Amino acid sequence: MISKLENEEIMLKVDSLGAEMKKLILKKDNKNYLWHGDSKYWGRTAPVLFPIVGRLKDDSYIYNNQEYKMTQHGFARDNEFKLVEKTDNSITYALEANSETLNKYPFEFRLEIKYTLNENLIRVGYKIFNQDQKKMYFSIGAHPAFYWPLNEDEKKEDYYLEFEKKEKIAKYLLEAGLLNNQTEPILDNQKILELTPDIFKNDALVFKNLKSEQITLKSSKSERKIRIKFKKFPYLGIWSQSAEAPFICIEPWHGIADSVDSSGKIIEKEGIKDLKAGDHFDSSYTIIID
């Protein structure tokens, strides 16, 4: 079921399937900034990644000496969420453990996703509750896709990403969706990352431990821009499906894909978080349309 949330500046549509954002319209130009999900390139728009981010080695993990199967990015994006609260400026969805999830993920959990509007800003909040009697292991991440280019008369090469601070960073390389323990320098004390259609030819750009907590998609030919604020997210992914795909994903993550030499044990997985029984975890990121 699609629900709508709006104020004087923006309008947001969210699907209860996956609690996934489907449209993000800036009213002053009546333009949808969120990719529409054409399966020719990629059929999703802004999936929530839970309880893993990225791919597991052999699409499996081990917990308490038992093997569990789970596909890339986890199962939350393919499950129906309940709409649990709607106010004038916010909407909250929830997903709880059930017999199907317990076969893949042996923890009693509750995941709440809250979308809040404030002028031209959308805050996406995650709240995860451990409702089990044991420690729970998880990752969570965002995967929103935005049109690239934003204007029909522009080219992809007209766009760039601007980091909040100067960065001296490398991208972590992937091999069949797994980290291959190699890196490649990409910025040397710079803020600007130029975008080209083939920048994702070897899969996503994966960054760790950035100084910046904000990144902006900008054009050299127009004033339109999209800012993402991701305070306290240890990882960031940037991705598009192909040189022809007219979208770019900007993905703050609490978690990351397995490495090619991963042990498979979830308690040893890089980026994994844990919650004691009865505890909860809060995080949020923000999208600002200018």
TrEMBL record:
Transmembrane segments: none annotated. It comes from the Bacteria. InterPro entries: Aldose_1/G6P_1-epimerase, Gal_mutarotase_sf_dom, GH-type_carb-bd, LacX. SUPFAM superfamilies: Galactose mutarotase-like. One of its GO terms (molecular function) is carbohydrate binding. One of its GO terms (biological process) is carbohydrate metabolic process. Coiled coil: none annotated. Pfam families: Aldose_epim. This is Aldose epimerase family protein. It comes from Halanaerobium saccharolyticum subsp. saccharolyticum DSM 6643. The lineage of its organism: Bacteria, Bacillati, Bacillota, Clostridia, Halanaerobiales.
